[in-house]
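Input (structure):
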């Protein structure tokens, strides 16, 4: 592990200087992992990566983005304020991009497939994404739809994925 960190320390400056992207994921559930595996927001080195992904948000029964772990992600009812603390890392590194990751390996394809295949559901999803990103000061979204077309997906997922990505891009840059 030490060797990896040393090598990363040698490679990172050249990656950043060259305009390359170094994306890293942080699992919110690591805040409550048993020691020695606990890893809280303030332990993240905001200079290690160019883009930090907060994992994970989900897609709700209404096909809109949903907070999966309110007790970790939000401040309400004594929550751990994960979203706010995570995006506050940009105060330490002004060049850092913080992104919210939705999906992940455990989410399957069926819900993504249904949402992406219906223009009205897609629009509702995109609008809910924009509202959540804005509310918590995230710079973007990482759509972690693993294995489209299988695990409950459909053959047309490829085209629907492209359409969804274009609509998200337009909303983010509109």
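Output (sequence):
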């Amino acid at each position: 592990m030490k060797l990896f960190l040393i090598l990363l320390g040698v490679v990172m400056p050249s990656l950043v200087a060259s305009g390359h992207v170094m994306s890293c994921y942080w699992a919110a559930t690591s805040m409550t992992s048993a020691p020695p595996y606990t890893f809280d927001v303030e332990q993240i080195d905001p200079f290690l990566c160019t883009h930090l992904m907060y994992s994970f948000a989900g897609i709700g029964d209404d096909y809109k983005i949903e907070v999966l772990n309110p007790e970790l992600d939000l401040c309400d009812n004594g929550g751990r304020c994960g979203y706010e603390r995570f995006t506050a890392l940009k105060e330490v590194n002004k060049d850092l991009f913080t992104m919210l990751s939705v999906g992940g390996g455990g989410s399957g394809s069926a819900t993504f497939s249904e949402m992406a295949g219906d223009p009205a559901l897609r629009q509702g999803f995109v609008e809910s994404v924009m509202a959540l990103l804005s509310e918590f000061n995230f710079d973007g979204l990482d759509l972690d739809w693993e294995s489209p077309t299988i695990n409950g997906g459909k053959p047309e997922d490829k085209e629907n994925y492209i359409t969804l990505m274009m609509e998200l891009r337009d909303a983010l840059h509109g």
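Notes: The chain is about 40% helix and 15% strand. Residues 1-10 have pLDDT under 50 and may be disordered.
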